[in-house]
Design brief:
This protein is α+β, with helices and mostly antiparallel strands and 645 residues long. The chain folds into 3 domains: 262 residues, Rhopdopsin 7-helix transmembrane proteins (Up-down Bundle), CATH 1.20.1070; 136 residues, Roll (Thiol Ester Dehydrase, Chain A); 174 residues, Hotdog Thioesterase (Thiol Ester Dehydrase, Chain A). It has 15 helices and 14 strands. It has a 12-stranded antiparallel β-sheet, sandwiched between helices. The chain has a two-stranded antiparallel sheet with strand order 1-2. Helix 5 packs antiparallel against helix 8 and helix 8 runs antiparallel to helix 9. The longest helix is centred in the first third of the chain and has 37 residues. The protein is elongated. InterPro entries: ACOT8-like_C, Acyl_CoA_thio, HotDog_dom_sf, Rhodopsin_dom_fungi, TesB_ACOT8-like_N.
């Protein structure tokens, strides 16, 4: 017999479940779409969600069949006995799918948690306990379907001979374990979210997103109540609520599991609404300045307000916006102030992007993990007038090492990418092999003169005469300088702030070492014969600004150089940059540091430079390498602009 949908108790549960199934499907599509947009791999939790969703669709098909074919939702007196038997057979398969669906989604949620918090020992222990409980519960639920009544036909035909166990006791025991795992999944990430250094509104938003699991716990409780109160005398009517709550449980779980990725999706497609704009007045939630080390917040304020707006736009604000914090799938950050744009350059200062990528990644690892290596690639020239989006991907979470990849993007394109490795402090063992390059002898730091706090650059540089300057072999020459951050870095940033500052300064005239050891001229005639007057004026202005920056921030007077007989650089731009951090806690970046650079090779329009960075006490704190384009000027083409990124 075929039953229509005119009865509300039969029709309404179907409508509710269809709506929630469609919503779960849409959030899953957005989940996968957000991965594709970020070029992230589809992970194990994504596959578990997809499999669970397919099983839910199958369960929904069984529910609709039970309503149309077996009279589900109608009173037993209005349904034929043969249809009641058919309904109970459908219910047997329906119950079998439920345990599998719920277990798959819960395992997907725990898998997602593992990518965020697995470096913490206490989390791993708790997570494996929940995984074990979930798997055992699912097995028990499946076995209960087969073992509740013997023979199996007793599940739908009570007239034959056989025996059934206590249904109420089974519902209570399995329901209690299910609710316990629901609550555990809800509580598991809370300590780490509460520990985030976010403003209260931002933290509350992330808590609210993860707390959506409260609704799932409520659904589990209502399902258990519906099972216990199901009336065997009117089974077709009371089972309608059981079917509805049984399907709602995995649907709400999937929606809960998808929320962080749905949030990421909307941040990508509508950043002006969901927190990516550089407008800091009233639209966006700001992180406190200590969300990134204070060096990053303060250094922008020391870029110098006297530079032309053609070079550096007016500041947008002093705080850093987070567009996806820890607890979302991948951390996403952006700057609210333009990064430093060196006069005469066509892009952002590379050290600024290096430092902000490091600062962002440092916020995604445990506090006892410190960066030990960083490998960067400059892809495109950045635009200082628009924000840079920093996407942090959690590549590996280990006991002793963690890996992060950060991609800086503008206008939907990658302009910079870096991979960093972090090591747990004191994980090298008690016995180690040690040696280090010593600080060159007879090197004294510059004094603190009256101009110590003057100037516009974010750091100060004091050049020393080139070592082995008269050598005929460029690889024997070494460029040297003392360098430090301008002003004082706040202690609130910890040693991470000094690491970011070191990364910032490590790009200071790095590839320029090749031009110095080859005695090349960077400031030739304002223009060549093929240039128009407007081009001449523009290039002249940019060269003058470039010279001015060198004189103010680096102490170099380009006009005082003897240019006779020198070849002129036509293009000089960084390609890649690597930093090996040796002693992350044995230096201060706002105190004088000594750097020594040499070039082992140059050719084919490129050059490679090595740099040693020492603390004032002689400790070797970092070793850096950089390769860049170094091309001599072609007099027959317009003068290209030097770029650092």
């Amino acid at each position: 017999m075929v039953y229509d949908l005119t009865v509300g108790t039969a029709r309404n549960p179907v409508i509710v479940i269809i709506c929630f199934t469609v919503f779960a499907l849409l959030t899953t599509i957005l989940r996968i779409q957000s991965k594709w947009m970020r070029k992230a791999k589809v992970a194990s939790d994504d596959y578990l969600i997809i499999i669970a969703l397919l099983l839910i669709v199958l369960s929904e098909t069984l529910q609709i069949s039970a309503v149309v074919v077996s009279g589900l939702g109608r009173h037993a007196g209005d349904v034929s006995p043969s249809d009641i038997i058919t309904l109970l057979k459908i219910n047997f398969g329906f119950r079998l799918l439920y345990g599998i669906e719920v277990a798959l989604v819960k395992l997907a949620i725990i898998s997602f948690y593992f990518r965020l918090f697995s470096s913490r020992d206490c989390f791993r222990v708790a997570a494996w306990i929940v995984i074990s409980l979930t798997v055992l519960w699912a097995l028990a639920d499946i076995l209960a379907v087969f073992l509740l009544c013997m023979p199996l036909s007793m599940n739908w035909d009570m007239t034959g001979e056989g025996v059934c166990l206590n249904r109420t006791a089974m519902y209570y025991s399995l329901g209690a374990i299910n609710i316990f795992t629901d609550i555990t999944l809800l509580v598991l990430p809370l300590p780490y979210i509460l520990g985030l250094r976010l403003e209260n509104k931002r933290k509350f938003g992330i808590l609210a997103m993860f707390s959506f699991g409260i609704f799932n716990t409520a659904v589990s409780i209502l399902r258990m109540r519906a099972l216990i109160t199901a009336n065997g005398g009117d089974i077709t009517f009371t089972l309608a609520r059981v079917f509805m709550w049984t399907l709602l449980d995995p649907c709400v779980l999937i929606i809960t599991a998808n929320l962080p990725m749905v949030r990421t999706y909307f941040m990508l497609v509508a950043p002006h609404i969901f927190g990516s704009s550089m407008d800091s007045s009233n639209q966006h939630r700001m992180l406190e300045e200590n969300r990134l080390p204070r060096f990053m917040a303060e250094v922008d304020d020391r870029f110098g307000s006297d530079l032309s707006d053609q070079v550096r736009p007016k500041p947008f604000g002093t705080k850093i916006v987070i567009t996806g914090g820890k607890g979302a799938i991948d951390d996403m950050f952006t700057n609210t102030r333009p990064l430093w744009h060196p006069p005469g350059a066509r892009g952002i200062y590379g050290g600024a992007v290096i430092a902000q990528c490091l600062a962002a990644a440092q916020r995604t690892v445990p506090s006892n993990f410190t960066v030990h290596s960083m490998h960067c690639y400059f892809v495109l020239a950045g635009d200082a007038t628009i924000p840079v989006m920093y996407y942090v991907e959690h590549v590996r979470e280990g006991r002793s090492f963690a890996t992060r990849t950060v991609q800086a993007r503008q206008r939907g394109k990658a302009i910079f990418t870096t991979t960093m490795s972090f090591a747990r402090e004191n994980s090298g063992g008690k016995k180690t092999v040690e040696h280090a390059v010593p600080l060159p002898s007879d090197i004294l730091p510059p004094g603190d003169g009256p101009d110590q706090e003057s100037g516009s650059g974010p750091f100060m540089s004091r050049r020393i005469e080139i070592l082995n300057k008269e050598s005929k072999n460029p690889h024997e020459k070494k460029t040297r300088q003392w360098i430090k951050a301008r002003g004082r870095i706040s202690d609130a940033g910890g040693h991470q702030a000094h690491l970011s500052a070191l990364a910032y300064m490590s790009d200071s005239y790095f590839i320029g070492t090749v031009s110095r050891i080859h005695d090349l001229w960077r400031f030739g005639a304002p223009a060549n014969p093929t240039s128009s007057k407007s081009e001449t004026d523009s290039v002249t202005k940019e060269r003058e600004l470039y010279r001015r920056r060198l004189k103010e921030s680096e102490g170099v007077d380009a006009l005082a150089e003897n240019v006779e007989g020198k070849a002129e650089i036509g293009m000089m731009v960084s390609l890649d940059h690597s930093i090996y951090f040796h002693e992350p806690r044995r230096f201060r970046a706002d105190e004088w540091m000594f750097t020594e650079m040499s070039s082992p090779w140059s050719g084919d329009g490129r050059g490679v430079v090595q740099q040693h960075m020492f603390a004032g006490d002689g400790t070797l704190v970092a070793t850096c390498f950089q390769e860049g384009v170094v091309r001599l000027k072609d007099e027959l083409v317009p003068i290209p602009k030097t770029s650092k990124l």
